[in-house]
Sequence to fold (120 residues):
Amino acid sequence: QVQLQESGPGLVNPSQTLSLTCSVSGASITTNNYYWTWIRQSPGKGLEWMGAIVSDGSPAYSPSLKSRASISRDTSKNQFTLQLSSVTPEDTAVYYCARADGSIWPFDYWGQGTQVTVSS
Fold:
C-alpha cells in the first residue's frame, strides 16, 4: 500500500519561503514512470497543479509558479520537498502531495493534505 504524508509548518510569514516535505512509503520515488506531485487548493478555488519530480529527479513546474517554486528529493529518505518563495496570503491553501502514473494527471495516491496559512 502506497502512502504519502505531508509535513511542514502550518503558518508562514509573508515574503518568507514555505517548505513542505512529502514522505513516501510503499513505493520508491526513483521507480520509473511516476510523477511525484504537489497540488494545492486555496479557499473557494479548485485544485492547482504546482509541479512534480519524476524518477530521474527532473522537476516540472506550473508556469504560474515556476519563478517561485522548487521541488527536490532525498532518495535516501524516500522524500520529496516543495519550496515556495516570497509567499503572500494568496498562497494560503491546503497543500497535497500525490503520485501520478505515466503522466502528470490523474493521481492514484494522495496524502491527506496539510493546511498552510500565510499571515503575519
